[in-house]
Fold these 2 entries.
Entry 1:
Amino acid sequence: QVQLVESGGGLVQPGGSLRLSCTASGNLFGPRPMGWYRQVPGLQREFIAEILNNGATTYSGSLRGRFTISRRNATNTIDLQMNSLKTEDSAVYFCKVTLTSDFWGQGTQVTVSS
């Protein structure tokens, strides 16, 4: 069994920053590829970024430069630093860990509004 818990969401003004964290626990058997996604109600879940066991990263082209993914293997945690936030960044943010299948967290709400 694998569990993921996201934290760090909230309300921020346009142009502001937030840092999300996601900690995985359970039968991980070592560091695993992990990633961040987001979803607006009624729309498809959108890929943001992924980070592999060795720290290699992949980003959505539209978010590269404003969002940065990092990981802390000692605690099976990934972070997402989000800068220069825009109202269209408002969404529920989910993290994912990949073993033989994907496991998802419950999500954390990010609202960008003045």
Note: The first strand starts at residue 2 and ends at 7.
Entry 2:
Amino acid sequence: VQLQASGGGLVQPGGSLRLSCTAPGFNLDYYAIAWFRQAPGKEREGVSCISASDGSAYYVTSVKGRFIASRDDAKNMVYLQMNSLKAEDTAVYYCATDTLTNCRVGGPGLPPTLNGGAYWGKGTQVTVSS
């Protein structure tokens, strides 16, 4: 299973981008999809997750209120709308799934986690700079 994230680019602070995640030949409908990011010199961190069971979305505190996760099962796509972008949002963004229906989140504002053996896609670079 190969997930593909796309939609990254260069944007000014305060701008917006919409990332997309798909998996050709693999039905995402049944699975929670998480978004992670990794900035240069930093560890990868969970940013958001959207469940398959009811579409509930979860966000780490640093992006809550600015990022919106959604899914279009008819198109086999998952999106991450990123608004009010800041320089600290600069990172390579990845979508991933451990094929569970619901997200694994320890509590409000905490990052999502994945079981071992999760499927990852190639990331997409997001650069926020003036």
Note: Residues 64 and 109 are 8 Å apart (CA to CA).
